[in-house]
Model the fold of this input.
Amino acid sequence: MASSPPGEPGDVLPLPYDADSLARRVGPAWKETLLTIYRGMLLGRILDQRLLGLQRQGRVGFYGPAMGQEATNAAVAAALGKEDWVFPGLREQLVALLRGHPLPVYLAQLFGNEKDPARGRQMPCHPTAREVGYVSMSSVIGNQIPQAVGTAWALRRKGVAAIALACFGDGATSSGDFHAGLNFAGVLRVPVLFLLTNNQWAISLPASRQSAVATLAEKARAYGFSGSRVDGTDPVAVFCAVRDAREALLKGEGPRLLEAVFYRMAPHSSSDDPTRYQPPGWGEEARLHDPLGRLEPLLEKLGLVPGPARDRLREEIETEVRQAIQATEPLPPPGPESLFEDTYRHPFPPLTEERDRFDTEQGGHFP
Amino acid sequence: MARPSGPPRESPLSVQAVPVTSGRAPEGLTAADRKRMLRVMLLSRALDERGMTLQRQGRIGFYVPVEGQEGAQVGCAVALDPKDWLCPGYRETAVALSRGIPLRQLLSQLYGDRADLCQGRQMPNHFAFREFRFVSASSPIGTQIPHAVGLALAARLKGEKVVSVAFFGDGATSSNDFHSGMNFAGVYRAPVIFFCQNNQWAISLPRSKQTRSETLAQKAEAYGFSGLQVDGNDVEAVYAAVKEARARAIAGGGPTLIEAVTYRMGPHTTSDDPRRYRSAEELALWKSRDPVERLKETLVREHALTEEEFDQFLEAARAEVAAAIQEVEPLPPPDPGTLFDDVFARRTPQLEEQRAAFLAELPGSGGRKE
Amino acid sequence: MTELTLIQGVNQALREAMKADPDVVLLGEDIGVNGGVFRATEGLLKEFGEDRVMDTPLNESGIVGTAVGMALYGLKPVAEIQFLDFIYPAFDQIVSELAKLRYRSGGQFPCHVVLRAPYGGGIKGGLYHSQSTEQLFASIPGLKVVVPSTPADAKGLLLSSIFDEDPVLFLEPKRIYRSLPGEVPDGDHRVPLGTARVAREGSDVSVFAYGAMVPVAQQACQGLDAQGIHAELIDLRSLVPLDEAALLRSVEKTGRAVIVHEAPRFCGYGAEIAALLAEKALYSLKAPVVRVTGYDTPFPYALEHLYLPSVDRVSRAIERTVRAA
Ligand SMILES: Cc1ncc(C[n+]2csc(CCOP(=O)(O)OP(=O)(O)O)c2C)c(N)n1
Ligand SMILES: Cc1ncc(C[n+]2csc(CCOP(=O)(O)OP(=O)(O)O)c2C)c(N)n1
Ligand SMILES: [Mg+2]
Ligand SMILES: [Mg+2]
Done:
């Protein structure tokens, strides 16, 4: 796996900022913002490492890491407003956490146990967090895109000053729902920001073969609005781009497409073996663009997070993660009756009969 | 190259300005060629006239007029090779006529009779003529677009120097299949031409509300190849654009999207009443750009055609349609037993059973019409 | 009470719902200026404005996906699919999203959308303006499927659907949109989902039908009175939830069942009813259950009248059932 350990600067590409430029671009609260983002990124990286490990040990069934996407995720979370709605693609779980979704609840989803608000019904990494405006994700690529348009329309109709954020990958740009969603958004001019997380791979297909277009961002023109690209390994750039786009959306300037480009630094998922298809140099190249590797030297240079502070912070997060895992892992699975709940608001026959005879049918094992 | 005549570029109406043509003069289109094209356009128009009335008289069930789009369709079809594959929608009657598909066969499809190659299985205007590489049209919008890409790839694989053409409307550019077809064509550089007839309307939805994209042609850029707008009522401009696109495709230069800007002068179909959603002024404006009149005027101006000759052509077209109707109308409906054919290559046991029961019951229910 | 056609019943339900609740919004192709290709939304654009009666671009997945997003936020979108035959680009949104959001989110994101779609044959629409594929949708947990057959039910069931809490596919039998006017209660008339209607009482055989097959079956039943065969006709009205009790009650009384639908027989909705009777009413049955359905072929154009269950075919099937044993 091609991930670099956090904090090992190596020969990464430096981030081109100093205190002045940061104050100018991010604003007076730039230090807090940067620290928040960094902490978020670190949480994302540590979680990915721990959970991939748990998956290998058979303690969670599946895992989809977001290594490489940490800067984008954390910067997006920092730039969004409380009332905004997030329609995740495959790898924005960190955004939910940074918007306040409790870590133990998130982990309960991964373990599929009784504390999971969705009652263990989905594969790991498919959280639902209504309390932070984070919509239940499905595994089907692209489906969330027109949904975000509908919610953006509802936000506008209700007069709420908020946007809908639709996240999706480079692969999703080929889906019918990408076309439908962007076209509807253009026609309806709703406050939706399309965030294309281009990690350059859709499982084994490189982005260059996903479409013959020069840059995916250009696709926005086909729908009558503008698209732009941002270095997705640069949290400052992503933060500013999302913040500015959001402001424009709130002014009623119509939808936008933002393509954040970064490197997928891990397998597609725990079920994937990228050595089958990635060129040999990929891991090395990706390392140069490791968002944590790029940010940490800058923080050090700015005197914000010197080495020892970084170690303490990492330890603190690791403890938090460890404790959350310890508290969550032993919880029992959801009650068997939950199998039948939430199919409809009020169940009816034959579903109710299936529920009523479930226990006998299963051999009377349940209390 | 003939510049679009007619009213000025800026129109106060909810329609697009007259577009630019590719600007290149078509090579090898003689006056005689253009007269032949005119005659096909007139034949299509004559068929439209009768098709609309036949439907009103209850003699056929439904009709889809081409009126206004003959220039785009004939200009495109003539620029192709007879071996090129066509993936039409339901409005491509003039394309079919251009290809030389006999009028009688088209009429048999409209009547859904025993001579219809499709055994009356589809609504009128949903043609299929394998012999002419005119692929079966269906009603769902856009589905033929990826088919054209598949055909083009297959032809390339087989080493055939042909292209395929997907015909579709402005409305179809919103469909998922447009997106899939265009994207696949770009990725595989398929020898395919996407021929979009922007007739300004998708039933009641004007082009401006179909997408906020400034032109439909520019959508090609999203897939990494080029698109161009052409005046679809200028048959020669269309011809030139398609010729060029075809040459590029054959040379391995990949697909092209052509947006032929035109106008549906009639209703969407016989089930539609366009007065509910568009103005008389708009229609009048576009009638002044009628592709038939445009070609006629050019030919007359060049002294290649006289008014009398034109009238003769029109009369001949009408007579041809009338004669074909007379021939086809008395034909009986398809044999009832055919209902169970072509579901699969061979009838399954269930279908055999149903067919036997059906035929046994026929005397009772066979004569009944709803 | 006012005499209305079925499509007017639909129109009235939409108007009532929109007047009652500002969260009800309509979207679909040609539903605004044009009032819908069948005129179901006639006059609504004028009354409620473009913001609540939205003409959309030509993309069904976009229509359903956008409606899902609106519903997630708490609106009550009613989307029109111009013909059921054109719903398939949206199948993914329906199967993967609409029907599953409540379940997969543990009830946090219920998603109440009504999809209206004209369906069924009898209008000379050929393969793509005629199909009955209700069985595809009835087999998706999380989705309700409702089919009115009278103007009053069209209004009452649609209003109940709009104010239900689950997603509903509302199938409108377009063949009888205008042909069979009937009395419709004024105002907020609701018919609860999941209740079948006894269209005609009888003692000898139970006939189960829905949509445009109800009047066909009705005619067949009436014709058999003269021969001393008294058929009971049950209009299912709601395929999901199904009013099992009403079906079982009827079969327990008559001991015989004939099921009529336009859709092909194989894996059709009739198979579900036959299975229900086999599981729960076998000992009441005096004769095999009989299905009268479309054939297992695509829907034809020229031979449509031979494809659809006709009064004759239904009559013969009823007779056969009654005469058996
Ligand atoms: C409609 C659909 N087709 C196929 C898949 C299987 N699949 C899961 S992820 C994936 C690739 C997605 O790539 P991309 O959109 O770039 O997102 P990434 O995984 O790179 O974040 C595929 C093909 C799916 N989930 N949904
Ligand atoms: C998938 C699908 N949705 C809806 C329809 C109904 N419908 C038939 S034609 C049409 C408009 C098509 O417009 P356009 O693509 O511009 O072609 P035109 O009819 O103008 O030639 C619509 C909405 C359909 N046939 N297929
Ligand atoms: Mg990707
Ligand atoms: Mg059109």
Strands of chain A lie at 85-87, 164-169, 192-198, 201-202, 205-206, 227-231, 256-261. Chain A touches chain C through 49 residues (CB under 8 Å).
